[in-house]
Design a protein that fits this description.
about 325 residues, alpha+beta, about 40% helix
Length: about 325
């Protein structure tokens, strides 16, 4: 039962994030570029769309929690759960990513609606935190889960990354990105890391979270295009379980793997910085702000190894 719940949590949270992205990316298609100064007039129709979409998303998420997510889980007194060491902290990077996406999208949606910049920063930027917080509270009320201060801290960092950069730089100098590829551990885990396409995301060893920044901001060479980025990534390997590795699952043994952390350095492309005039193409590029493209990468890990990946996904 616990494992099935874990699968539900991961899949639902990703589904909610992607739903929000789709809602607002459709709105962004109609724009050429977001206003950079408060010289535009508030568009009440667009603002109503933003508020309505956000409200529907929020209400739908809360309804899912109450009537579907926890429907077969015993309710218990509110309690805390310390999962800071789970999955070598990769889960916290995922929480931060979800909160960052929601804050980023909501900020841009409010700007698209003509909301003054400072208000959009705080109204939109805090949305990631407040959209994630109810999930943590609900976790604290059900058996097998618990209110995780680590998750709340990660959600806070995700929103803070958006708010802080907009206040300090008037743009997202560092973008938080995600990449995924099936790990070599998945076929050997007897289904614990997911079976089939719909469960690929359960393979935490295949997740990599990246901080991506313009290369010409690091190396002062004017000939480097603004859209060429340098990325620093974090991933894990050999993790077949939250706090310790499973040795047996689905009636079969699982080989022993040494749990380790992986740190990566790679190039990337910031699609939002590529100059294009076509509105549809511009909107498409804007919606790809969170995707890390495959590039060669150098890996350093806690096993003491250094690896070169000709093409890292």
């Amino acid at each position: 039962m616990i494992f099935s719940l874990i699968k539900s949590v991961i899949m639902v949270r990703r589904f909610l994030v992607l739903t929000l992205i789709l809602i607002f990316c459709q709105n962004l298609i109609s724009q050429n570029s977001l206003p950079t100064a408060d010289t535009v007039t508030l568009n009440k129709s667009r603002l109503a769309t933003v508020i309505g979409s956000t409200s529907a998303f929020y209400i739908g998420g809360m309804s899912y929690l109450e009537y579907i997510w926890y429907t077969d889980v015993p309710r218990v007194p509110f309690h805390f759960y310390n999962d800071l060491k789970a999955y070598n902290q990769l889960d916290k990077f995922g929480h931060m990513f979800g909160s960052y996406l929601e804050s980023y999208i909501c900020f841009h949606a409010y700007r698209w609606a003509g909301v003054p910049r400072n208000k959009a920063i705080w109204y939109g930027g805090l949305m990631g935190f407040f959209m994630q917080l109810p999930i943590e509270i609900w976790d604290g009320l059900y058996q097998g889960w618990g209110f995780s201060l680590g998750d709340v801290a990660a959600n806070t960092l995700g929103s803070a990354l958006v708010i802080g950069q907009e206040l300090a730089f008037h743009e997202q100098i560092v973008k938080y990105k995600f990449s995924f590829s099936r790990s070599p551990y998945a076929p050997l885990a007897n289904g614990y890391l997911g079976d089939g396409f719909s469960e690929l995301v359960l393979d935490y060893n295949g997740h990599t979270y990246w901080l991506s920044m313009g290369l010409n901001r690091i190396v002062p060479v004017k000939t480097i295009p603004d859209w060429v980025n340098l990325s620093v990534g974090y991933g894990i390997g050999g993790v077949i379980g939250s706090f310790y590795n499973k040795t047996y699952y689905n009636g079969q043994s699982i080989p022993e793997f040494e749990r380790h952390r992986r740190f990566l350095l790679s190039l990337d492309i910031d699609f939002t910085k590529i100059p294009v005039k076509n509105k549809t193409l511009k909107a498409l590029f804007n919606s790809m702000f969170m995707i890390k493209l495959p590039f060669p990468a150098i890996e350093f890990n806690t096993l003491g190894q250094q690896k070169f990946h000709p093409l890292y996904y």
